[in-house]
């Protein structure tokens, strides 16, 4: 049975997609989307598979509408369009925080290119995320603790 294009796009499949779906709504929060992205498993596609712990992969980089390079990242393996799999058949999961930590300064990022739940971040936006969002284990000892945890 073949799936009709776009039918699977309408139901969020995970927390990140729920946050992305709210992105255009008044109750949506860009900070919530970024935090969910950083803390979620996301997927890149590559021509290379992972052969060992230290193996490096070259994920698929697309060109945006302005012709600038953007790293293609997907919120769920089912969001990878067939046309991308023809170019890069290996779907690899990793943490969103690892993507941000390892993305180059000249590279933007597009989440779910062509899907209902997605957005693009330019290189400056990626740099801002690197600067403004730190993992909990990277916070200085003097950082205030979450009051709701007490």
Helical residue percent band? 25-40%
Strand order of the largest sheet: 2-3-5-6
Reported for the largest beta sheet, the result is: 4 strands, mixed
Radius of gyration: 16 Å
Q: Tell me the β content.
A: 15-25%
How many H/I helices? Answer: 5
Shape: globular
- Mean pLDDT score, rounded? 84
List keywords for this structure.
disordered N terminus, 27% helix, alpha+beta, 150 residues, four-stranded mixed β-sheet, 6 strands, Trna Endonuclease, Chain: A, domain 1
Give an overview in words.
- 27% of the residues lie in helices and 18% in strands.
- The chain has 150 residues and is of the alpha+beta class.
- It has a single domain (13-135), classed as Uncharacterised protein PF11572, DUF3234 (Trna Endonuclease, Chain: A, domain 1), CATH 3.40.1350.
- Residues 19-127 form the SseB protein N-terminal domain.
- Pfam families: SseB (PF07179).
């Amino acid at each position: 049975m073949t799936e009709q294009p776009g039918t699977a796009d309408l139901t969020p499949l995970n927390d990140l997609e729920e946050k992305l779906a709210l992105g255009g709504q008044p109750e949506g929060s860009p900070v919530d989307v970024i935090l969910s992205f950083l803390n979620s498993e996301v997927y890149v596609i590559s021509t290379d598979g992972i052969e060992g712990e230290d193996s490096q992969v070259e994920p698929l980089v697309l060109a945006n509408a302005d012709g600038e390079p953007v790293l293609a990242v997907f919120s769920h393996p089912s969001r990878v369009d067939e046309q991308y799999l023809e170019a890069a058949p290996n779907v690899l999961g990793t943490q969103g925080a690892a993507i941000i930590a390892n993305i180059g300064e000249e590279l933007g990022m597009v989440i779910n290119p062509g899907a209902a739940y997605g957005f693009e971040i330019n290189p400056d936006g990626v740099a801002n995320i690197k600067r403004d969002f730190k993992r909990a284990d990277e916070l200085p000892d003097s950082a205030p603790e979450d009051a709701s945890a007490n």
